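tokens incoming
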């Protein structure tokens, strides 16, 4: 129940979500690395790209290509496997093809493509002005955006995301009104179902920032959770403008249920890792495509 002592600021008391973030490290010169200044994160991104391109990789080939030790490559594959990005097999790794109903948890998703999500969130924050009423759906990119909106005066935020609401609760700004819908909690820390939908239908919002599981030309913006799809569709209907936040890894992923068609998005914000053919599809289908540049990691 909301604390009446907080005055205009209405928000549920929440338990914070702790996220373990893997520590980045530079390539070890003792491993025989000859690529000056390359980070382990960059090497892992290159490995992931090869897995997606070829369907799999072998440790022996990667050792030769990157001039590092067998153990270094195995650690890289272990890191990618822990994030759910590849499937480890004997002598290498293969591509992961999640089913249309598979739903990763918030903590698992939060460690993926962190730099891309931060760049997308920073660009999205530029669309928000004092006095607006905005909605943030559940998702790790929308949670990044929430961190950048805590300083916006007189902001009203409607969200079905426990982590997003927690960000605003911890900021302690009294001139912001934050409404957390009720509902059934999902693995991605979204509140969904009839209770959430009934609450959302009473609002009239300026902007909706929507996080999605996947984007495809055929399926549009999709999710693996049927009840979350209903809830997100209610958010879309309540907002004057739909802004979709999705890093490049969401392209060509297909969840079981469509939230909205591509043409329903007024703006899509993504990162420069999105392939050019996919960018072309989106430029033709959505109102506006914004492609952010991800700062190089040093």
């Amino acid at each position: 129940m909301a604390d009446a002592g907080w005055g205009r600021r209405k928000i549920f008391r929440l338990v914070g979500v702790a996220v373990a973030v893997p520590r980045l490290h530079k390539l070890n010169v003792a491993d025989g690395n000859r690529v000056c200044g390359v980070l382990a994160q960059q090497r892992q991104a290159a490995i992931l790209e090869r897995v997606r391109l070829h369907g799999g990789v072998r440790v022996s080939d990667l050792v030769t290509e990157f001039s590092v030790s067998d153990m270094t490559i195995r650690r890289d594959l272990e890191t990618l496997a822990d994030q759910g990005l590849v499937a480890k097999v004997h002598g290498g790794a293969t591509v992961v093809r999640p089913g249309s109903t598979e739903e990763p948890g918030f903590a698992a998703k939060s460690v993926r493509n962190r730099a891309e999500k931060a760049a997308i969130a920073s660009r999205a924050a530029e669309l928000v002005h004092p006095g607006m009423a905005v909605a943030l759906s559940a998702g790790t990119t929308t949670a990044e955006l929430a961190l950048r909106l805590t300083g916006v005066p007189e902001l009203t935020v409607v969200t079905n995301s426990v982590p997003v609401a927690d960000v605003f609760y911890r900021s302690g700004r009294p001139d912001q009104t934050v409404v957390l819908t009720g509902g059934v909690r999902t693995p991605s820390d979204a509140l969904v179902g009839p209770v959430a939908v009934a609450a959302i239908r009473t609002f009239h919002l300026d902007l909706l920032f929507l996080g999605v599981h996947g984007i495809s030309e055929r399926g549009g913006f999709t999710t693996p959770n049927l009840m979350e799809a209903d809830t997100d569709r209610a958010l879309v209907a309540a907002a004057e403008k739909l802004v979709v936040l999705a890093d490049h890894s969401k392209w060509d992923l297909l969840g079981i249920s469509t939230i909205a068609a591509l043409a329903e998005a007024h703006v899509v914000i993504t990162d420069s890792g999105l392939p050019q053919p996919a960018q072309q599809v989106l430029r033709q289908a959505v109102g506006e495509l914004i492609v952010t540049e991800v700062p190089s990691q040093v």
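note: The chain has ten helices and 15 strands.
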